[in-house]
Structures are given as C-alpha cells and as structure tokens.
Design goal:
Rossmann fold; 444 residues; 19% strand; seven-stranded parallel beta sheet; alpha/beta
C-alpha cells in the first residue's frame, strides 16, 4: 500500500496564524494516532533488529520475506514469536508518511507526545501513537488499543477518561471496531453482541482514508504481490498476514467483471475462488516458492497444506470483519468525522480474461488483450478515490440504481481532498480541519 505522491499543494492555510490563540490546554482529551497497514515499524524484541521498514535501501530493493508470519499448524493462528511494533513510520524514500502530521500536532496544535506509563501534567495537551503489528488479525490489534486506553486512564488519574482517536486507513477500522464492539471477538462463530463496547471511551473518532467497505489493494497484493520500491512482497508472504484479509471489499460488492462488462459472481472470501483462478497461494509460482522456502519435499508440502488451511480460516474471519462493521450502528456509537481523497482513479474492480489455461487480472484498461468496442473499461475498473480507497468505501455507502446495497455509515462530517492515500495526513487542508475539529469544535 505504498503509493506515490499525489496532487501538489498550490497554496496552504496559514496554520500558525490560524491556531496561535487556541485556548487553554487543560481538559483537552488525549489524542491517539493510529497508523494504517504498513504504518508501524516492526522489530524483534530480543535483538532490536528492525524488520519493517528497516532502511531506504530495503524499501527500494527488498522482497521482505522476513515479514512472513509463522503459522501454528495446530491452531492455524499466527505464531508471532518476539516481533513487536515499536513506533510510527514517519518517512522513507523521500516521502512523508506521518512525520508532517506529528510535527503539526506538536508545533501548531500545542500537543506533546507522551508514552503509556508516563504521568502527564494537569494543564497539558497530549497525543499518543498506537503502533501495532499490522500483519495480524485486527481484533488482536483492537485489544492492544483497549489496553493503551485503559493505561492512559491510570496515567491521567481519571477512570472516566475519554480520548480522541485519529485513525488513518486501517487505523480507522480499529477505532470503529473498538467503538462498536470493544474487545469482543465478533469474528468467531456464534459471537454475541457485547453489552459494553468502547464508545464510552471515545469523544471523537476521526478517520482518514479509511476503507469502510474495503479496498482492492490487498486483492492486488494477492494477485501480483505488494509493490514496494523496485520490488514486491510475494503473494505467499502476504497470505500469512491475516490483517490484509480484513481489508478486502465487502463480500456483497462485485469485484470481478468479464470483458463484456458483466459481473462475475465469485465470492472473494471463498478459498475455492482463488483456487479456481489459480491466484495467490494457488498459483504455481507461489506454491513452488512456498514449498522451496519451507524445506522442500514432504516438509515443504506439509507447510503448503498448513498455509492453505490457514488461508481458509482467516479468509472467513476477513469476511466476517466486513459484515459486522456493516451492521446497523448502535445508538451510543460516536459518529465519525471522515476525511479522504476523491481526485484519483482508484481500482474498484478487476477485468478478467482467460486463455483456457490461466486467468489474467487486469487492473488497467491498457492491459486488456481482447477489449470489446463500446465498453468503458476505465470507468468499469476505476472509481474516484485516493488511489487506494474509493470515495464510496471511505463513506461506507455503496449504492446501486435501486438504492443502497448495505446499511450506510452514519457520519458526523466529511471533507474531501485532492491527495493520494499516503499523503492525506500531511495535507495542510486536512491538518487545518483536523486541528479545528479537535481544538475548536463544540464538545457536547
């Protein structure tokens, strides 16, 4: 999900002037910044060896096989070992990711970064970063968010503490899930709605570039790898990361079309779909690679069988994640403030072609080998968005000619920008509206 830079800012609001008199800091709820997928740095806890992103050289040339998640063959759960998330990804390869945002919070907003376990002063304005292992199941990450908030209630000596949450991309989904379900695992069979969720802990939930109805980016990663720099993370590595499966499009939204412009009714979360198409871990290349990397022969084949069972288990959880977030909102849920881009053609569907042996996925009109006259492939494949998340997914509103396909997301306020996915948090207009929402808007 490392996109390229978007539209250039021709002018910027004078933030320092606008927020030179922003009132007292006392009583300001702490802010928690949650980055998106790939937005937290990862390292081995025992050695301190960083595995993501490591360095600019790695970002440019590495295949990142080392971020593969080990699998417990008995439970089909991730065996993460001693890998931990330790900080936010500020910048790399000459691109800003979250550095400008943190600088604006500090220099313009008067916030001071704090860490859990530190005792804040009574008259301060503070923000915290929640780094998490984005490779893992989102429910696991939500538990970590809960633990952070409970620790902050202790640090601030306030058992009724409320926080503001700013979530970029997948970070917004973590905030939404926590507000709705708390730490309950609603992705398991027979799950029952909890009596208490996390909404009582949240004053404002702000989401930036959040794929509320999923995104095609992880699908592309399963088809051709996650492109980074001059290389890519292979599909068999991506498939070990259950968090990616919870970012895919809602199962009721069409995702495949044929060259005639007709939707193909294949379930995106059904392993047999991927097996039939021979994509992801079912492609010959991915299977050969997985077997070879895990000992070859019987040992490698045993790993491949485990990987396929793991894939099926976590695809089912990915489907359920999308479904539960589309349930009608509870009355006590905070209505989110939504920020995102809608100026960039963004892949919403794939056009597939078959030669009888392989099925090709086309994410661009110019790669279609046998286009038919009269079909607008550009608009068939793309929708307005930020290059990763479509505007319809951002807004949680997928509509057809007969009306909404799914219950629509209740939104407090929405603002659209002309920037791409990874540049949204550094956009000065976004930062202006963010600071106004946090510091100047009414609290009732």
């Amino acid at each position: 999900m490392l996109a390229t830079a978007g539209c250039a800012q021709t002018s910027a609001p004078p933030l320092a002037l606008l927020y030179q008199d922003i009132g007292p800091k006392a009583g300001q709820p702490p802010l928690i910044v949650i980055p998106g997928a790939f937005g937290s740095q990862l390292r081995h806890r025992t050695t301190g060896q960083e595995i993501w992103p490591e360095s600019n050289t790695s970002l440019m040339f590495s295949n990142y096989d080392n971020i593969e998640v080990a699998i417990d063959a008995e439970t089909l759960e991730p065996a993460t070992g001693d890998v931990e998330a330790f900080d936010i990804f500020r910048d790399g390869l000459g691109q800003d990711f979250y550095g400008r945002l943190l600088k604006t919070l500090e220099k313009i907003g008067g916030y001071r970064r704090m860490y859990p376990g530190q005792t804040p002063e009574a008259d301060g304005r503070y923000f915290y970063v929640y780094p998490y292992d984005w490779r893992l199941d989102n429910v696991t990450s939500v538990q970590g968010l809960h633990d952070l908030i409970e620790q902050l209630a202790v640090d601030h000596d306030n058992p009724d503490l409320q926080v503001d949450i700013l979530g970029h991309s997948n970070g917004g989904l973590l905030g939404r899930y926590y507000a709705r379900f708390g730490t309950a695992d609603m992705l398991r069979d027979g799950a029952i709605l909890p009596d208490r969720n996390g909404s009582h802990r949240i004053r404002r939930l702000l989401m930036v570039g959040t794929p509320n109805l999923g995104t095609m980016q992880p699908v592309l990663s399963y088809v051709r790898g996650e492109e980074i720099g001059l290389g890519s993370i292979a599909p068999d590595i991506v498939a070990t990361c259950p968090g990616t499966m919870q970012l895919m499009p809602h199962p009721d939204i069409p995702w495949l079309y044929n060259v005639r412009g007709e939707p193909i009714g294949l379930n995106i979360y059904e392993p047999d779909t991927w097996r039939e198409l021979k994509w992801s871990i079912f492609s010959q290349t991915s299977q050969s690679r997985a077997v070879y990397r895990h000992g070859g022969g019987k040992e490698g084949q045993s790993y491949l069988a485990t990987l396929e069972a793991y894939f099926a288990r976590h695809m089912a959880r990915g489907r359920r994640f999308q479904e539960v977030l589309c349930l009608p909102a509870r009355q006590d849920e905070p209505e989110p403030y939504v920020f995102g881009g809608d100026c960039t053609p963004t892949v919403a569907h794939l056009v597939v072609e078959s030669d009888g042996k392989t099925v090709r996925a086309n994410e661009r009109p110019d790669t279609i080998r046998n286009p038919l006259p009269g079909i607008d492939y550009e608009n068939l494949i793309n929708e307005p968005g930020d290059g990763v998340v479509t505007r319809s997914s951002l807004m949680g509103r997928h509509r057809t000619r007969s009306g909404p396909l799914l219950p629509e997301l209740n939104i407090a306020h929405s603002i659209f920008l002309c920037d791409e996915h990874l540049q949204l948090t550094g956009n000065p207009s976004f930062q202006d509206n963010l600071l106004y929402t946090l510091l100047s808007a009414r609290t009732d």
